Hints:
Layout: E1 2-9, H1 15-27, H2 34-54, E2 59-65, E3 69-76, H3 83-88, H4 92-99, E4 102-107, E5 112-119
Antiparallel strand pairs: 1-2, 2-3, 3-5, 4-5
Amino acid sequence: xxxxxxxxxxxxxxxxxxxxxxxxxxxxxxxxxxxxxxxxxxxxxxxxxxxxxxxxxxxxxxxxxxxxxxxxxxxxxxxxxxxxxxxxxxxxxxxxxxxxxxxxxxxxxxxxxxxxxxxx
Length: 120
């Protein structure tokens, strides 16, 4: 896996937009497929929204190139939450499950990492 870019978006109303734009900007180097770029935008928006709502401090967004496509990891500095409670709120994780080819979430006492992959 090759890291293509890392970006920390401040915890502000613009965090979702800024994270989405950065991921799409990086991905445009590897694909001109507007459907893929749209899906990456939706997925990033949902992941950053989740971090914004449940975390603290800045939100770290890392974009990597995998053998299969693009991987995006969003990390917040929040405390550990009950994973079942998080899945019941809104439809963000449902969208991530449906639109990504792979995804996962790692929750710890001081941070949460949510990642997803989209095939190219």
